[in-house]
Amino acid sequence: MLKAVNKAIKDLKGSYAISVISPLFPKKIVVAKKDSPLVIGKGEGENFIASDIPAILNFTNTFYFLDEMEMAEIDANKVTFYNINLKQIDKPLKSIEWDAVASEKQGYADFMLKEIYEQPKAIRETIGSKFNSENDINLDIDLDFTKFNKIYIVACGTAMHAGLATKYSFEHFCKINTEVDVASEFRYRDPLVNDKTICIFISQSGETADTIAALKLAKEKGAKTIAIVNVIDSSITRVADYTLYTHAGPEIAVASTKAYTAQVTLLSILSAYIAEKLNIKEVADELKELKKDIAELPQKVEETLKVADQIKDFSQKVFDEKDIFFIGRGTDYTVSMEGSLKLKEISYIHSEGYQAGELKHGPIALIEDNVTVIGVATVPGIISKTVSNLEEVQTRGAKILLVTNDSIPESEYKNIKDNEKNTIVITPTTSSYLSPVLSVIPLQILAYNIAKAKSLDVDKPRNLAKSVTVE
Fold first, then answer.
1. Phi first, then psi: what are they for 312, rounded to 5°?
2. Is 243 found in the same domain as 134?
3. Could you tell me if 221 and 271 lie in one domain?
């Protein structure tokens, strides 16, 4: 059977992760992989295969990881590994820190709700692994950052939104031109990448096919590559020059929540680390404040979660709507896009995230009586402009959910607050470069409650998979 599978995979095109059984060998399984995830869990008198670690975490916490074009023959007591030429090879057995309890609901109605409430812990552990007690940053990245003149952040879906949210931080603190690109576009547009480019690739699973392909392209062009990943020893970690883990723990729900906020946190830490290495004097004081705000994030996320009841009440007013619009400026716009994605992923309501300043360039034509518009306004200096845009949709009959923070005086949004159709949600104040970590949480809770009001499966939305392992 091993030889038969070996012959077969040499004819296969594209990506695959396969397991083969036969009545001729009832106590054996043969597995092989190429560009798709496959893990082998080692037990006592039993062994397991799955596409990712959480699927079998209840049975074992020790795993083997196949590299590309490798095979394994498995029975209850032994795993034997081979390369594509059927030469036997050795593979290390690795222990994973996640425990089985982390992949259970623990009394929550859904994994998504549990993971929303795990965000303080996920962020605390992400910070704790990188900060010491004096807020000094310790990242194992040995690069001379003065040699680089461009940063690319490449990812898909929610991970891409995390990149967009932190582009501002990299440019402001590091003074390096930073672009954010969707992985599936990056790899096909001949990007201007060379040995003076840092490419950062973000993936919760570390198995996203387009992101891995984009990473390989960047390496071919001479860039230095950094992976931001949640899953230990995932495929992307074996390709990137450097890997930073988010320590969010297993994320079971398809719609990402804690992985996103952990990614934004870790990317912010990375931007501060690079800025310190570059020793840019003009942002030194701001950098100290940023690091202080990062350290305070877990507590502020806990405070933000207290808006849940207020959000649930608002969701009862809007769960049966067909269209919902999100608007914001700067980092608030990136949060609007992520909030919109969460809503459409699990509630199947059509939603769009727009730059607030672009309303009059088209989107305002869609506003009519009783349409819901969700505004995010937390960035100092431009809040009044976003509020002005919200007042324009209000005059056209829209009802508004405004997410802002407690440093903004009520006088800024008095006209919105005075309208009984509207709801104001207040989050704690933090650096505008970190505000996406807090302002996204009410939008996660909103999407969750709307989906529950529609009696939908929030953990497994239709047509979606947790890891997109094909193009």
1. -60, -40
2. yes
3. yes
Residue 41 domain-assigned (yes or no): yes
Query: Tell me, what CATH number does 212's domain have?
Result: 3.40.50.10490
**DSSP per residue, 370-427:** T-EEEEE--STTTHHHHHHHHHHHHHTT-EEEEEEETTS-GGGGHHHHTSTT-EEEEE
Encoded amino acid at 296, one letter: E
Does any domain span residue 343? yes
d(CA 338, CA 334): 6
Q: What is the pTM of this model?
A: 0.91
Residue 18's domain comprises: 2-101
List of residues 6+ apart from 298 with CB closer than 8 A: 120, 121, 123, 124, 127
Contact call for residues 172 and 283 (beta carbons, < 8 A): yes
Distance between CA atoms of residues 209 and 75, nearest Å: 29
Task: Give the CA angle between residues 294, 297, 299 to the nearest 5°.
Answer: 145
Q: Compute the Cα dihedral for 353, 349, 111, 49 and give only its sign.
A: negative
Tell which residue, 181, 111, 112, has the closest CA to residue 343: 112
Considering the domain architecture, whether residues 357 and 433 belong to the same structural domain is answered as yes
Phi and psi torsions of 454, nearest 5°: -95, 5
> What is the DSSP track for 84-125?
TT--EE----EE----GGGGS-TT-SSHHHHHHHTHHHHHHH
Q: Return per-residue pLDDT of the chain as tens, 471 residues.
A: 999 999 999 999 888 899 999 999 999 999 999 888 889 999 999 999 998 887 888 899 899 998 889 999 999 999 999 999 999 999 999 888 776 566 678 889 999 999 999 999 999 999 998 887 677 898 989 999 999 999 999 999 999 999 999 999 999 999 999 999 999 999 898 899 999 999 999 999 888 889 999 999 999 999 999 999 998 888 899 899 999 999 998 898 999 999 999 999 999 999 999 999 999 899 999 999 999 999 999 999 999 999 999 999 999 999 999 999 999 999 999 999 999 999 999 999 999 999 999 988 998 988 999 899 999 999 988 999 999 999 999 999 999 999 999 999 999 999 999 999 999 999 999 999 999 999 999 999 999 999 999 999 999 999 887 767 666
How many CB atoms are closer than 10 A to CB 44? 9
Query: Sheet holding 62-65: strands in order across?
Result: 47-50, 39-42, 62-65, 94-95
Dihedrals phi, psi of 455, to nearest 5 degrees? 60, 40
Residue in the block written with tokens 């009440």: 313
* In-domain check, residue 471: no
Amino acid at site 419? N
